[in-house]
Design brief:
The protein has a domain at 36-106: Arc Repressor Mutant, subunit A, CATH 1.10.10.10. The protein is 60% helix and 11% strand. The protein is built from five helices and three strands. It has helices spanning 11-32, 37-49, 54-61, 65-77, 99-106, and strands spanning 52-53, 81-85, 93-97. The N and C termini lie far apart (49 Å).
Length: 107
């Protein structure tokens, strides 16, 4: 049987190339639907968790409350989320996906 010469690629380099290609693909998909990474992350979290308080979304995304407020305002303006006040504590804002937001996640 004939031996073949195989060029070995270091595993860390190969993993880095795969990660870069996947990141590029994801960024292109988000660009196609006009979403920023934080916005897409928020929609994904809501699709898995259902209904969450605004502060919990901020924790899960690792951002500060003022940043999540701006992000949610943009998603709400696009009709991708629904914000509602807690019946017992008006300081708490509950966030859920709208039907349009669910459409973004499912496609």
């Amino acid at each position: 049987m004939e031996e073949r010469s195989v060029r070995e690629i270091p595993v860390p380099l190969l993993l880095n190339q795969i990660l870069h290609a996947q990141t590029y693909r994801i960024m292109q998909c988000m660009k196609d639907v006009d979403l920023k990474p934080g916005q897409a992350g928020c929609l994904f979290i809501l699709s898995k968790e259902g209904k969450l308080p605004q502060k919990d979304i901020a924790k899960k995304l690792g951002v500060k409350p003022p940043s999540i407020t701006a992000l949610l305002k943009k998603l709400e303006a696009r009709g991708l989320i629904i914000r509602s006040q807690d019946d017992q504590d008006q300081r708490v804002s509950w966030i859920t996906l709208s039907e349009e937001g669910k459409h973004y996640i499912n496609n």
